[in-house]
Amino acid sequence: MHRRITAPGALAAASLLLAIPASAASFSPGAPGIGDPYYPYYGNGGYDVSHYDLRLQYQPKTDELQGTATILARTTQDLSSFDLDFLLDVSEVRVNGAKAAFSTSGQHELVITPKTPLPKGTPITVVVRYSGVPSTKSAYGFNAWHRTPDGAVAADEPEAAWWWFPSNDHPSDKATYDVSVAVPDGTQAISNGTLQSTGSKLGWTRYTWRQNKPQATYLATLAIGKFDITTSTSDGGVPVVNAYSKDLGDNDGAARASVERTGEIVDWLSGYFGPYPFSTAGGYVPNTTTGYALETQTRVYYSPKQFANGANTSVVVHELAHQWYGDDVSLKGWKDIWINEGFARYAQWLWSEHEGEGTTQELADYVYTSHPADDAFWTVKPGDPGPDDQFDIAVYDRGALAIQALRNEIGDDAFFRILKGWPQEHAYGNASVADFQRYAEQVSGKPLASLFDTWLFQPSKPAAPAARAASLAKADRAVAQPKSWKKIEATNDIHDTHDTHDTHAR
Questions:
Q1: What whole-number distance in Å separates Cα of residue 456 and Cα of residue 474?
Q2: What is the 3-state secondary structure (H, E, C) of 294-352?
Q3: d(CA 277, CA 323)
Q4: How far apart are CA 78 and CA 227, in angstroms?
């Protein structure tokens, strides 16, 4: 709180100034948003997180969650106070061991005022004790905590953390994680990374998971319920942990027939994208009513609805491709979503070719000719679609079309060097569409500004490349639908999270 002090006379004013340390004037609150124009109040300013340690206890019967979050961070400015993104009820906050004042603000801000201001560059340890019933909390009219018959799931984009841990909720602030969860005996808790330990005491079993590589907050996941857990190791040496709710009913077989191919698909994708970037892989299929999949890091979330029409390896390919494009290299801002979704969709096209069900060029031609010039599809700009169209189908299909156009422009040799080199160039970091363009130009030795502008940023249908224009013009009326199209399409219109999002899978 700022109080205005009026001191009589110049001498009193001078003595007042002498009493205040010269540096005090520079301390100010951290911004309540990290500066992303799509989501102005997501993330926070003033600090950078390096690690989250979450010690939780959850009761499935009542949906009660208790937790202590220990957050390791470093200040990036002189801070008088700072925010965390969070919705549950907080009972105590400590900063560097001392009790701190706290209050709530806006839709999802926890405002923390440490006992003493924090100079720029100070390492800080923030401890937040909290509890609550996540399913009763909402922000902006939605809830991203999904109850199941035997527990709950946290998996959503662009936000899910607020319902289960306090955080700096923006992909640009990645951190490592330890997640330790106690649940009643007979129930399991699943999270990202590697299972470090389990132990049972007085009717509760504690599961401790570790994510040892930097991870964006929306890619942190928590699943609690009764699961059948399978473990294996891929030919390439990647440990795989998958989990299936025990009450998936008719979708159980198709889910397993898809997700159990994770190790094979990780190895296959490694041939295009380079070594798998994490210590473990896998996925889980809880008994939820949601319709989408999400690339939660190392442990992909799949809805049972993905498998309602049988096995679907295409969606597994899409989400595993994100482990390189989206998880290892994360977007700098939400406008850079094309780097996530365009490349995950293109991986599905590569898988189609691998399966003999349509080449990438056949799929590109089909997408191109399926949408006439006056189709609204072409008004969405994949390189900066805007928050309302962030998950529009054009970001996926036009996004993949742009990648095929790049491939045709620079040739296969440079193209596949880019596909493999990009995840290593920005390993465990963040990058933008502009960064990708620069990298593509560097590797290919070609100027690509015009191509990127045409395919990613113009709200109109690009002209067909000259070499293909004649054949496409003839085929405009009837390009054959590739065999894989229905499988790829099945990963589209199944995104039903909440009103602020479009209806497409991620």
A1: 25
A2: ECCCCCEEECHHHHCCCCCHHHHHHHHHCCCECCCEEECCHHHHHHHHHHHHHHHHHHH
A3: 8
A4: 47
pLDDT of residue 18: 42
Query: Max CA-CA distance within the chain?
Result: 88
Per DSSP, the chain holds a count of helices (H) and strands (E) of 12, 23
Task: Please tell me the distance from the alpha carbon of residue 292 to that of residue 63, in angstroms, as a whole number.
Answer: 23
The dihedral built from the CA positions of residue 486, 487, 489 and 493, taken in this order, carries a sign that is positive
46: left (phi > 0), else alpha (psi -120 to 50), else beta? Answer: left
Residue 228 host element (H or E): strand 227-233
pLDDT, position 473: 57
Query: What CA dihedral angle connects 247, 251, 254 and 256, to 10 degrees?
Result: -20
User: Tell me, what's the pLDDT at 218?
Assistant: 98
User: For residue 283, what are its two tokens?
Assistant: 């996925």
> What would the pLDDT profile of 306-354 be if each residue is shown by its tens digit?
999 999 999 999 999 999 999 999 999 999 999 999 999 999 999 999 9
Task: Please tell me the pTM assigned to this model.
Answer: 0.92
Query: What residue type is 369 in one-letter code?
Result: T
Amino acid identity of residue 7, one-letter, is A
Cβ(314)–Cβ(491) below 8 Å: yes
User: Taking the CA atoms of the chain, what radius of gyration do you get in angstroms?
Assistant: 25
Alpha carbon distances (Å) from 370 to 24, 182, 241, 364: 62, 51, 39, 10
Strand order, beta sheet including 109-113: 28-29, 79-85, 109-113, 101-105
**What is the C-alpha to C-alpha distance for residues 58 and 391, in angstroms, rounded to an integer?**
32
**Distance of alpha carbon 473 from alpha carbon 365, whole angstroms:** 11
Going 74 to 78 to 80 to 84, the CA torsion angle's sign is negative
- Report the amino acid identity of residue 138: S
Q: Of 273, 385, 397, which Cα lies nearest the Cα of 341?
A: 397
Q: Which two tokens stand for residue 21?
A: 């340390």
Instruction: Please check whether residue 157 is in contact with residue 170, taking contact to mean a CB–CB distance below 8 angstroms.
Output: no
> Which stretches of the chain drop beneath a pLDDT of 70?
1-25, 466-478, 493-506
Paired residues of 291 in beta bridges: none
CA distances from 135 to 123, 138, 162, 221 (A): 34, 8, 12, 16
Element (H, E) at 138: none
Query: Which pLDDT score, from 0 to 100, does residue 464 have?
Result: 85
pLDDT tens figures, 436-472:
999 999 999 999 999 999 999 999 999 987 556 555 6
